[in-house]
Amino acid sequence: MKKFLVEISARHIHLNREAMDVLFGEGSELHPVKDLSQPGQYASEEKLTIRGPKGELSARILGPLRNEVQVEVTLTEARQLGLKAQIRESGDLEGTDGGYTLVGPAGELECANGLIAAKRHIHMTPEDAEYYGVENGQVVAVKVESPERSIVFGDTVVRVSEKYALAMHVDTDESNAAGLSGSAEGEIVTF
Question: For the segment 105-124, what is each residue's pLDDT rounded down to a tens digit?
């Protein structure tokens, strides 16, 4: 079977309209600087500070705006902030930790939830899922080879939608464990 793109997803923030108004001013808009691999998604020019009990980190906002505020960090970064991030799929925010503040040029927003460490996942179209013989929500293992630290990532969720493009996302903690820089290729394996 053909290999697929494995991308490193650095910490980032998703905002809703209300948060955007508080942090950047009423009616403000995001300014795209780079398209991402998923259709319609982009990195914006705008950044915020994430302030926790033990420290602060800067993070870029990804667009377009969403229905809820979601902050994605690694487990290491959460500890640096003095917070505990739960490993979750994007959008699964019920019961997630808060206790952090987002700081923007026009204001601050205290957040009661929404902090996650994104569960590693593969975006696929229905055609891709058929080719690989997997289904939406299925958990698979993915082998990623690197010169010094090849690794098999277990517990990888398959996410299927017509809106997706084939790519796996891992966070920077995971990419560091595999010795990756930039992007790599992966293949679904059984073990």
Answer: 999 999 999 999 999 999 99
CA distance 129 to 119: 19
* Cβ atoms 71, 111 nearer than 8 A: yes
Q: Where are the beta strands (DSSP E) in 3-89?
A: 4-9, 12-14, 32-35, 42-51, 56-63, 70-72, 86-88
User: Can you give the residue ranges of every domain in the chain?
Assistant: 10-118, 120-189
Place of tokens 């966070």: 171
Dihedral sign, Cα of residue 158, residue 162, residue 163, residue 165: positive
Q: Quote the pLDDT of residue 191.
A: 56
Reported as a single tens digit per residue, the pLDDT across 136-162 is 999 999 999 988 899 999 999 999 999
Mention the CATH class of domain 120-189. mainly beta
Going by C-alpha positions, the residue among 98, 121, 93, 94 that lies closest to residue 110 is: 98
The answer to whether 74 and 117 are in contact (CB under 8 A) is yes
Average pLDDT, stretch 76-82? 98
Secondary structure letter of residue 8 according to DSSP? E
